[in-house]
């Protein structure tokens, strides 16, 4: 069963195309992480927040990733990180066409 | 551009198949909401939390949904709801195979 990791934190940019340019190498490296399936990059310039929704193959790989990622964010000066790992409810998600399998 | 709504709250179950049975009619109704694209249903029996990750066509339809959904959750006795709406960064999300278009 796939596990979902939701992460958000305060960040004063960059956002949009500038964010995409700054983090494209980081994004490529995320594709190589253990158990990684996909990530949606999230951003809210209005509230100075950013983050991501990730899908991982197992709870363990999601936990391993957020441990590593929290340290990386701390290196960027971002320490107040909201991170939660959830199981996904397959039957309900299927009714609502959620992209999990 | 698609907007992502992340919602989570404390809930003492039901989880798993029992949750799917309790909320399958609600799930079907969500497919009819304005601007709705998909929802992943999330649950964490270990921490007594539940929620969902939604994709909407516009920020306005995401806002309209969470206004209605917050009132519905309050009707279930759930009032301490974390809800955030984010834009999605298309370029980075595409690198990471995120299911947004």
From TrEMBL, chains A, B:
Keywords: Monooxygenase, Oxidoreductase. It comes from the Bacteria. The keyword Oxidoreductase applies. Transmembrane segments: none annotated. The keyword Cell wall biogenesis/degradation does not apply. It holds the Pfam family ydhR. GO terms for molecular function: monooxygenase activity. InterPro entries: Dimeric_a/b-barrel, YdhR. PANTHER family: MONOOXYGENASE YDHR-RELATED, PTHR39169. NCBIfam families: PRK11118.1 (NF008333). This is Monooxygenase. It comes from Mesobacillus zeae.
């Amino acid at each position: 069963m796939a596990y979902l990791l939701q992460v958000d934190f305060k960040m004063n940019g960059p956002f949009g195309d500038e964010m995409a340019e700054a983090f494209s190498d980081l994004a490529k490296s995320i594709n190589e992480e253990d158990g990684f399936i996909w990530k949606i990059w999230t951003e809210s310039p209005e509230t100075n927040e950013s983050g991501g929704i990730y899908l991982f193959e197992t709870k363990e790989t999601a936990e391993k990733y957020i441990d590593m990622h929290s340290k990386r964010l701390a290196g960027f000066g971002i320490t107040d990180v909201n991170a939660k790992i959830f199981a996904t409810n397959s039957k309900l998600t299927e009714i609502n066409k959620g992209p999990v399998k």
